[in-house]
Amino acid sequence: MRIFLIIPVLLTGLIIIFPRDFISDAPAYKYFYQVHGNNTLIKDRQSLIKYAEPILFQTYGKENILKEKPYKISFKNGVWSMDGTLPKQYTVGGTFHIVINARDGKVVKMIHYK
3-state class of 76 per DSSP? Predict the structure, then answer.
């Protein structure tokens, strides 16, 4: 008789624990969707490239930046990060790194490694 009572209690405990994991992640998802709302300047990867390339071209030269395609792009905590990739013919060298606020488009950080 005790075995039958323990199993529902264990299952109930698992059901209670499982949603708590989702609830703890909920603010991160909520923030992600808030950043991608209508009042956000840079909403996707294509918008980021169109916005960042002219800044990079003016600073480091169009030819140099285009050689560093494809770009590595990531989004975290409301900012976009974009990095160049080193061309295959080079074994030593650096690429650009730019971080832009998604909401207002301000450049948070920009550097070209050597």
Answer: strand
At 107 the three-state DSSP class reads strand
| CB-based burial, 50-84: b 16+ in 10 Å, e otherwise | ebbbeebeeebeeeebeebeebeeebeebbbbbeb
Number of structural domains, the chain? Answer: 2
Say whether pLDDT at 27 is over 90.
Answer: no
50: containing domain: 45-112
Identify whether residues 51 and 102 lie together within a single domain. yes
Structural domain contains residue 40? no
Helix (H) or strand (E) holding 109: strand 107-112
C-alpha 32/C-alpha 39 separation (Å) is: 13
Q: What is the pTM of this model?
A: 0.67
Question: DSSP state, 71?
Answer: P
